[in-house]
């Protein structure tokens, strides 16, 4: 009962933090402004949650079985977190730099007002991918009371940010949400890593290069934007390749980054080297 109450407490707090922005924007600015915000939010952050949910179902039981083996527990968590960040962050960085193109291609030109909101929310997306796996640690370590307390702190900070940004419309709320993520991230990991097998220095050394590389990839893709092809689809594809290339180039200068590239290669190598067996011919 105590374990379940802790998880439920976090879910309730998370529900408040994830829906208060819509309520506030709709009440203060009306349906049109809320529509632009909602489209931008779902286009960026909703797919992120769809990535996190299946991983959560796999990682929590896997880490729970390793709780008595601290080294394997820490190693497994950091390895999966790095791979998730490497797969997702360059794409988010590309979307931030080419927000207007992304919105025009995926939503249509009538939603162009969502582009700046989408761009502002993109920076929250970068840190959302870093912070989402924190739930794996809270639950697998049985620290649901800490999980609930963190959910309350997160809800208070998020709603405070929404109120600060609300006078400036949906864009102001989006900027405030991203700023709040940068404030909440160090608080979360300091609070989380004070107990358990995963230490703060482990997370910084492992995920730090990827977060740095993602921000530099945003700058690189934005600077390259005038040189990209005029075709929207080709422009997005070229920027995406550039973003992944820059990220890989930057992280390979760090030991954890090289480990991430090796892990990624080990995952895809069997598919690239698999030989297709010739079809057998039945005898006449």
What does this structure look like?
With 284 residues, the chain is mostly helical. It has helices spanning 2-65, 70-97, 99-106, 114-131, 134-140, 144-165, 169-192, 200-224, 232-251, 255-273. It is globular, with a radius of gyration of 21 Å.
Which keywords apply here?
single chain; 284 residues; mainly alpha; 83% helix
**First and last CA, distance:** 69 Å
The total count of helices amounts to 10
Query: What's the β-strand tally?
Result: 0
Low-confidence stretches: none
When the domains are counted, the total is 1
> Rounded to an integer, what's the Rg over CA atoms?
21 Å
Largest sheet: none
Overall pLDDT metric = 89
The level of helicity is: over 70%
Morphology call: globular
Q: Please identify the structural class as seen in this structure.
A: mainly alpha
Strand residue percentage: under 5%
Offer a quick outline of the entry.
The protein is mainly alpha-helical. It has 10 helices and no strands.
Write the layout of secondary structure elements.
Blueprint: H1 2-65, H2 70-97, H3 99-106, H4 114-131, H5 134-140, H6 144-165, H7 169-192, H8 200-224, H9 232-251, H10 255-273
